[in-house]
Specification:
about 375 residues; about 40% helix; alpha/beta; Rossmann fold; single chain; 7-stranded mixed sheet; 15 strands; 12 helices
Length: about 375
Amino acid sequence: MRLLTTAAMAALIGAASAITPAMAEIKVGVTIPATGSAAALGVPGKNAFTEMFPKEIGGEPVNLILLDDASDPGQATTNARRLITEDKVDVIIGSSITPSSVAVAGVALENGVPHFTQSPIGLPPERMKWTFVMPQKVSLMAQAVFDHMKAAGVKTVGYIGFSDSWGDLWVNEFKNLAVPMGMTMAVEERYARADTSVAGQVLKIVAAKPDVVLVGASGTGAALPQIALRERGFKGTIYHTHGAVTKAFIKIAGAAAENAILVSGPLVVADQLPPSPQQAIGAAHIKAYEAKFGAGSITQFSGHATDVGEILKRVVPIALKKAKPGTKEFRDALLAAIESEKEIPATHGVFNFTPTDHFGLDNRGRVLLTVKNGDWAIVK
């Protein structure tokens, strides 16, 4: 057998590479609150992105670039601009709180980059052209909360929520949905995400004597009014948004969390749901996540990362038939594919995006939970 010289071998390798298409790297940028006041929401997503996100899609490698926005909308904006203008990402993801997600959506719109937000946002349709929302639409979740209130005969509701766009969203949904159902907001109080006391606000709520209280907060910040209301003797039902569904909420609120009612995505109770494609993906996510991060560590926020992966696995192969990653044409093809692919099962439900609906989830994407003996239970 004749041995090839180094030069000959190099020539052969060069010839082979000349006829073998180069692999097209797909760049995915993430900005998420790994630190700061919203870390309870961001860390589960960070864990899932770094450990469980697809390493290749459509036969092409995925380059995931993850940045910490420290729960600050300004930093989220800076991160988004860096990821898009410097790193040239094909897709941008983030953030885990509404104010930061609104900021990232603006940067994505300016640059024409598909954007998956990890928190609900409410923007005019023209500002949502490139943004797709992984969490359930607030109106979808709010309807389940207000239907439960109505069935229980609730007439008056006390409200305490964040003094930002997340708190505003829930006040608006109360006006849009609960008021026509015959309910009134007896008192409205707000607090900042970083506050350590809501004693004054809770005193006003208790004095108003509402039938129930709705807390428009998220993460561990939602535990603050839950504890204070019970300490001040409020005996009625306390409702929470899907932003509060973390084991950290139960841990911090302790016994005060018992019997609270929270609307949630189905992931955290996937093992309690009947078989379906989405249930199978949710159960698999729980198994994989808890194998890496410990029993009971699952939150709905880690699921949003997996859901982006499930969507990209469906739409990237379609876009690759039209253009190469790193180009405007590829981003345009991704947008078109996201808006046209149907029935994409994921941990939080089944996604059906359209050009006029960038939320995509229906009633299959929500459940009502309560806290029983320090754990989640489905409200029957």
